[in-house]
């Protein structure tokens, strides 16, 4: 008989969280362990006493070594198997499983930190694995803390002191390591973020100030936006920074995505697409356009879909078309639940992003040219991770499809990669909100989706749907009264109460249920064990599914009503799914839930906003509370079909102005490309050049705002060090070149502008010479002018980039059909170059394009760059000459060593 019946895990809980939030985090991770190994898991949280380290919050988690079955403890869990058995059955070894658990803990902890509004993050990797020489801070256990408090010598204390001294020396030698820590969480940051990262490694105030000055004067630091000050010299907006490495990573990511979007070879024949449409006659036109977009020739495509716009139905149709063409379709998402949801809703076999990365690192699951790789919820993926997936699909010659909404939940780690990529490659958009029945509510949903919270709230306030009470408790009472009143008026309508805090969820569920029980609406009560403790259910109770299950045919967020209570089973009648095709199929469907096998359920009267992101109901009721932001408001105010009421306690928000201000707060992640467009940083090719152009000569540090200007006449020691280091570096700096201020224009808009100008030019030519032409020649001109329309209307499909360029070429030089032209076929980019020469005539060859014997190869420029040049040349000869002179001046400046090309 085994002497050991349980295995213990000890985890350090972030001290930034509240006691309630730490309990939620420990419960979430414990539930993950139970689900992963089928074991019984218990946890206990230990908080520090007043005399110990106030940050020493930790949890002890006990997991049985054997699986739990209906008859008791069964076989050993996989975690207890010997490695020989694990390898024989193709399972990860104990070491691999432990690493996966560390990564799972990172995900749970960071998710709870982000949900609580904190910027701090943890990383399961060691500093050595991340290439950092800074010694990590160690969590001092409760026993070591108590020994130190009693004056005893503790080896870990000595290690901490040694580590602090090593950190000071390491940062003095390589201050950019601190910037690596910061950019693990944010692509763009301010000096407060640098200070927080330093505080984790250095405790001594004097050493902290010295190290802070060294980091802020590092040559790796790039100032993206200067500090804004009022007329008194006080800072109104902090300067925003990034690093050269992060600028290059995000620029390279977008550069590669653009090249993939410009290349072809992964299209689907129209007959396969139309066949998938025929199976779903309810598809809206924008859904059909999205399917055509992702099944086009491009190797990188994106779809941005608002909440309730039908992304899953669109992907199902696209999958059928891809598979009919012979492609293998793979799916991925950041979280396991999202990956499972993608597979359930679209039929695309899916895994987590981490699982794909692990397989690739071990030579398994490699992609090939005949693959289509779909990433769902792409808005939650960080820049570093999405860059790896773009690189891998590009290397394999596969096609990448990104689907998401950049305004919903934000990435936990650095960057907003999905938004950055879609802004440069374009996207199909599903913006027709189908969930709400009233037109003004659909307009309000658009406002919330665009983070125009003030407009969205104003619409509901104007229709009397926002109610203020004196306290949050009174607001909860008003919600209960509204729920019961609406239920009496229309018993068949589905209802759901949404709130940000789990404590409010529990309170509202219990209160509404008590009201219904007192009125005799519930009968035959019975207690059941769920993953979150015991719950009592009765016939007539509302039921909320909290996990996808293929055998049951249910998804996370589905709602229903309990129709029968049996031993070990709950019979639930579903309300109906969201999609038009699913609704007719699922509405009224009866599901028998075996509670011993499926325990992820709860009462369905109230739930958190996070858990509601799959739900659709007739009426919803939202409790506003502190900690909500514009992203949560977007989800909460778009779950309903018929109506929503927003209830507010004045102890949370005093009035409408405070409510708008609180819910308008957006924790939207930034990328360096947000500032590249404003400050002239190139996306492709000349990335380091841009930093030098804007911020100084080669090898020079970036300007650090003068602390004396920020803090008035008193200059701190840190400020003085920063100022002196900055002055030393600025002494040899040349003035920065002027920064372009024009906004970025998409490729599609630029092509449209070229087409419009071409039409204007042809019209002008016709006006000048049409009257003098014989009739046959006039007909030929008219035929050329209509070539574009024929290309666009061909077979009812939107013309590709190549087709539109062909139409421009036909207009300028005449049709090529019937010619005996044996010249090699030109690429799209070569045709753009040839078209520009025909439109504008031979132009002076730029010095940067001249090639000499032994010279480096000329960098191949993207279509976007060439279109920009073509547009510039079509303005006026004077402006064109002025632009060329500026380019020659930059080249001369480069030759003088002003910046690195």
UniProtKB/TrEMBL annotation:
Residues 2-150 form the MobA/MobL protein domain. InterPro entries: MobA_MobL (IPR005053), P-loop_NTPase (IPR027417), PIF1_helicase (IPR051055), TraA_Ti (IPR014136). Residues 762-901 are annotated as: Disordered. Residues 806-868, 876-901 have a biased composition (Basic and acidic residues). Keywords: Conjugation. The keyword Phosphoprotein does not apply. SUPFAM superfamilies: P-loop containing nucleoside triphosphate hydrolases. It comes from the Bacteria. The keyword DNA-binding does not apply. Belongs to the MobA/MobL family. This is Ti-type conjugative transfer relaxase TraA. It comes from Aureimonas pseudogalii. The lineage of its organism: Bacteria, Pseudomonadati, Pseudomonadota, Alphaproteobacteria, Hyphomicrobiales.
């Amino acid at each position: 008989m085994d002497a050991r019946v349980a295995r213990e895990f000890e985890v350090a809980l972030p001290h930034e969280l509240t006691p309630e939030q730490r309990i939620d985090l420990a419960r979430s991770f414990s539930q993950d362990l139970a689900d992963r190994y089928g074991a019984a898991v218990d946890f206990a949280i230990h908080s520090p006493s007043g005399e110990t380290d106030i940050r020493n919050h930790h949890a002890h988690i006990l997991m049985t070594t054997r699986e739990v079955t209906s008859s008791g403890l069964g076989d050993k869990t996989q975690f207890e198997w010997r490695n020989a058995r694990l390898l024989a059955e193709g399972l990860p070894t104990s070491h691999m499983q432990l690493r996966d658990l560390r990564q799972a803990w990172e995900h749970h902890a960071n998710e709870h930190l982000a949900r609580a509004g904190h910027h701090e993050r943890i990383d399961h990797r060691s500093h050595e694995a991340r290439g950092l020489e800074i010694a990590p801070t160690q969590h001092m256990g409760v026993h070591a803390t108590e020994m130190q408090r009693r004056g005893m010598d503790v080896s870990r204390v000595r290690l901490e002191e040694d580590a602090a001294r090593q950190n000071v020396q390491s940062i003095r030698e390589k201050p950019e390591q601190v910037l690596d820590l910061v950019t693990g969480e944010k692509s763009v940051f301010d000096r407060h973020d640098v200070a927080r990262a330093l505080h984790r490694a250095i405790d001594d105030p004097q050493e902290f100030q010295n190290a802070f000055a060294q980091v802020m004067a590092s040559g790796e630091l790039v100032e993206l936006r200067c500090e804004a000050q009022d007329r008194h010299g006080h800072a109104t907006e902090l300067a925003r920074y990034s690093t050269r490495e992060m600028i290059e990573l995000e620029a390279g990511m977008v550069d590669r995505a653009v090249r993939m979007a410009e290349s072809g070879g992964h299209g689907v024949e129209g007959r396969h697409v139309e066949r998938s449409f025929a199976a779903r006659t309810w598809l809206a036109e924008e859904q059909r356009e999205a399917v055509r977009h992702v099944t086009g020739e491009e190797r990188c495509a994106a779809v941005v879909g608002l909440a309730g716009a039908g992304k899953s139905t669109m992907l199902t149709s696209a999958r059928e078309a891809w598979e009919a063409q012979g492609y293998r379709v793979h799916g991925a998402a950041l979280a396991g639940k999202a990956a499972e949801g993608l597979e359930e809703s679209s039929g695309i076999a899916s895994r987590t992003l981490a699982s794909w990365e692990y397989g690739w690192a071990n030579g398994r699951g490699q992609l090939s040219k005949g693959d289509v790789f779909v990433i769902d919820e792409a808005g939650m993926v960080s820049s570093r991770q999405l860059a790896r997936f773009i690189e891998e699909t590009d290397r394999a010659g596969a096609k990448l499809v990104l689907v998401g909404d950049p305004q919903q939940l934000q990435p936990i780690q650095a960057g907003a990669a999905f938004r950055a990529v879609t802004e440069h490659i374009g996207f199909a958009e599903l913006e027709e909100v189908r969930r709400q029945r009233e037109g003004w509510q659909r307009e309000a949903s658009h406002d919330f989706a665009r983070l125009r919270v003030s407009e969205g709230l104003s619409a509901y306030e104007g229709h009397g749907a926002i109610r203020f009470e004196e306290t949050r408790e009174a607001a909860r009472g008003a919600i209960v009264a509204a729920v019961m009143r609406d239920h009496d008026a229309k018993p068949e309508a589905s209802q759901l109460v949404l709130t940000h805090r789990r404590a409010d969820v529990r309170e509202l569920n219990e209160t509404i249920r008590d009201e219904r029980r007192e009125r005799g609406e519930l009968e035959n009560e019975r207690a059941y064990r769920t993953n979150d403790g015991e719950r009592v259910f009765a016939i007539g109770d509302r039921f909320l599914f909290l996990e996808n299950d293929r055998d049951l045919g249910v998804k996370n967020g589905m709602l229903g009503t309990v129709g029968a209570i049996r031993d070990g089973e709950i019979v639930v009648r579903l309300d109906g799914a969201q999609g038009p095709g699913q609704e007719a199929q699922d509405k009224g469907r009866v599901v028998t839930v075996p509670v011993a096998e499926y325990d992820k359920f709860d009462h369905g009267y109230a739930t958190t906003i996070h858990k509601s992101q799959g739900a659709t109901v007739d009426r919803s009721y939202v409790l506003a509370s502190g900690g909500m932001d514009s992203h949560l408001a977007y989800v909460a105010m778009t779950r309903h079909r018929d109506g929503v009421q927003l209830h507010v306690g004045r102890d949370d928000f005093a009035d409408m102005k405070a409510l708008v201000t609180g819910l308008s707060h957006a924790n939207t992640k930034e990328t360096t490309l947000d500032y590249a467009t404003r400050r002239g940083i190139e996306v492709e090719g000349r990335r380091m050049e841009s930093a030098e152009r804007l911020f100084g000569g080669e090898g020079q540090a970036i300007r650090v705002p003068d602390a004396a200007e920020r803090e008035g006449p008193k200059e701190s020691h840190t400020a003085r060090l920063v100022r002196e280091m900055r002055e030393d570096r600025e002494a040899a700096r040349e003035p920065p070149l002027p920064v372009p201020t024009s906004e970025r224009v998409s490729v599609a808009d630029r092509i449209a502008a070229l087409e419009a100008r071409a039409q204007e030019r042809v019209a002008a030519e016709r006006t000048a010479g049409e009257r003098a032409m014989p009739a046959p020649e006039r007909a030929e001109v008219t035929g050329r002018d209509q070539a574009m329309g024929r290309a666009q209307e061909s077979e009812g499909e939107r013309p590709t980039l190549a087709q539109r360029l062909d139409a421009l070429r036909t207009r300028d030089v005449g049709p090529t059909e019937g010619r005996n032209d044996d010249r090699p076929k030109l690429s799209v980019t070569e045709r753009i170059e040839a078209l520009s020469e025909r439109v504008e005539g031979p132009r002076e060859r730029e010095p940067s394009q001249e090639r000499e014997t032994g010279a480096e190869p000329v960098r191949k420029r993207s279509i976007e760059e060439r279109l920009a040049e073509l547009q510039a040349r079509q303005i006026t000869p004077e402006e064109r000459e002025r632009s060329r002179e500026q380019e020659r001046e930059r080249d001369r400046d480069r030759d003088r060593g002003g910046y690195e090309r």
